[in-house]
Amino acid sequence: MFITNAYAQSATDSAASAFGGSGFEMIILFVPLMVVWYFLLIRPQRAQAKKRDEILKNIRRGDQIVTSGIVGKVTKVVDDKELEVEIAEGVRIRVVRSAISEVRVKGEPVKADAA
């Protein structure tokens, strides 16, 4: 017999201790990784999503927008979720705000009522 039982047991014990015998050591390595993950990935994505929501919320009549390859000019804000867009002279379509990929040119400001 080449390998004794005592040798086999000591080999598995040393392998277990090589991976950090306690869970506390794993936590010490895991927490800084999560902090870096948050600041490099999660936080910038949240800021970008917030900026996109703000842009979509502030679309006004006269803005030039792009939706899935179609460029058009906003002619009417139907409600909080839909817009009416003119894609050619006399051709108007209704577009859902979430389908807008880009706002190219800002239009004229909303006129105040002369009261």
Provide structural commentary:
Helix content is 43%, strand content 25%. The protein has two domains: 5-55, no CATH class; 60-105, SH3 type barrels. The chain contains two helices and five strands, in the order ααβββββ. The mean pLDDT is 81. With 115 residues, it is an alpha+beta fold. A five-stranded antiparallel β-sheet has the order 4-3-2-1-5, with no helix packed on it. The protein has helices at 5-18, 23-57, and strands at residues 64-67, 70-77, 82-88, 91-96, 102-105. It is elongated, with a radius of gyration of 30 Å.
Give me the side-by-side strand order of the main sheet: 4-3-2-1-5
User: How many beta-strand runs?
Assistant: 5
Distance between the termini: 103 Å
Written as H for each helix and E for each strand, in order along the chain, the element string is HHEEEEE
How many distinct domains?
2
**Uncertain parts:** none
Helical percentage: 40-55%
| Molecular shape | elongated
**Number of DSSP helical runs:** 2
Q: What is the alpha-carbon Rg in Å?
A: 30 Å
Assess the beta-strand content as a share of residues.
25-35%
Q: Could you give a short account of the major beta sheet?
A: 5 strands, antiparallel
Q: Based on the structure, what is the oligomeric state of the protein chains?
A: single chain
Helix and strand content put the structural class at: alpha+beta
How would you state the average pLDDT, rounded? 81
